[in-house]
Predict the 3D structure of the following.
Amino acid sequence: MLRKKIAAIIEGALDQCRAEGTIPHDLHISPFIEIPREEGNGDYSSNIAFSLAPKLRKSPQEIAGILIRTMTLGGICEKIEPAGKGFINFYIKDRTWQDDLRLVCDQGISVLYPDAGMGKKVLIEFVSSNPTGPLHIGHGRGAAVGDVLAHILNRTGYHVVREYYVNDAGRQIETLGESTYLRWKELQGEKIDEYPKHLYQGEYVRDIAALLAEKGIKIPETEGESVKVMSVFASDEVMKGIVADLEAFGVHFDNYFRETSLFDRNAVNETLEFLKKKDYAYEKDEALWFRTSLFEKDEDRVLVKSDGEKTYFASDIAYHRDKFYRGFDILIDLWGSDHHGYIPRMKASIEALGKDKDALKVLLIQFVTLLKDGKPVGMSTRSGEFTTLREVMDEVGRDAARFFFLMRKCDAHLEFDLDLAKKTSNENPVYYVQYAHARIESIFRVAGENGFDMESVKNADVSLLSVKEEISLIKGILQFYAVLDGSARSFEPHRITFYLLELVGKFHSYYNKTRVLVDDAGITSARLLLLRILQEVIRDGLQILGVSAPDKM
RNA sequence: GCGCCCAUAGCUCAAUUGGAUAGAGUGUUGGACUUCGAAUCCAAAGGUUGCAGGUUCGAUUCCUGCUGGGCGCACCA
């Protein structure tokens, strides 16, 4: 918001210089404006003089001096100063900040939501774990990241749909059926010499087999038929568990898209026909291949195996084609980082469908290392020694789990310290944020008890907020706009987490230094107004993260 | 062997996408509750940003080559 006004001040000076002939008429450079790291360097800063220097053959300092002389304060700046080797620093008036706070108070927090999406439709597909076993902690990370990203995009002008792709066709489901069949036979009293290693080892398979008997499901005569029945039954049961876990984790999907539905509608065959017609697919060694190499630096990949079975890649193309059919402008896929080798062929297939490959944005979720007593806990779905999302939630709670998942860039390794997440102490960062929210609420309680009319606070005189820390807090509140904007444009949900920690740090510091409820009713009122909006931003930020904002703790 | 990601304070991580003196938390040391919640705050200490070059006014960020770690390279999912 202010950034645009700063840009206008610079543009004004450039125009002036062009008119005076200090700068050639045909020279146009769009100024880059940033917020300096150090507060001493002003509220905004521009490096425009550096960009102009080689073209004007003058030193950056000299150019900065000329520009500043021709600049106006634009009604928002206290002063504009040259600094360093050619930076131009803008110092904003307290009054400007106060006016903006007034604006947020009058118009609501949504004025801090930037319109980055401009109404574009986004499909965000995440988790999409095969229904062959419960969600483990890695899926939990993907669930948290996807959910939070959806919240962010929802606030920044996108239409978002959350979707879970259910791989309910294929070999793995069959393996689950086989596993269930064997466990079922065990329960029938049959001796199984050795339970094969390639089958699912988890305890949940036994539970499902038991449920089968409990529900009186009719089992066919032959093994082949039985496995088919059990594949469907078992994967449905597992899926129910997954949905329940996700809901408990606070993640709700708009749509569960079944892979089998693509086959039911003949969508996979249609897609393959399309590719063949375009000559993007060819037959070799009795298999059907996709010409990945035509679009990307990658090898050609098999769509239909020589035994006639279709690969996952084939249905994946059909699935993404379907997404475009449904009118989405941007497709976001969250994958485990071990699938990164899959990106080129997927991008290639998008191009083959005649779409822009940049319409597909793949976010890779790096693995989570779970630490217990400072030592890593191993996990693998097959072996059954995984740690489930449910277990982690039960142990550390939903708030801590979600917060921890969002403290890292999603493509960076995450060390999840169970002991730390479990601590209800100051070492746990999630409490740091929640505590601020509760603390502000507590101030409101006391103010109310002292007979302060909280309704009248809305009309407080914001110009009474003149303490350095108060101006800093206002800046922090207004920064929400830029953080949301950057977070949405870069698809980086973790920025919200860092922002909240920083914002809340400013508050705690202010709280310890300055009393809010003082004798002067005007000042008290103004401070309560500031905290009211601050609390609203904290609450909204926590809501984005899917973390609760308690009034007491 | 080829490709992708990572390497920053003792530990876990940031650094506004190329900006100014590289910042937090944690741990260590010392301090602050008769007043709105001490799950908090203040201060000190902690660095050749893995190594070596290159690009330029300026590099943790971009390029090249090493070293070390993770992950991929199926007619698997």
Observations:
- Chain A has three domains: 2-92, 126-250+366-422, 426-545.
- Confidence is low (pLDDT under 50) at residues 380-385 of chain A.
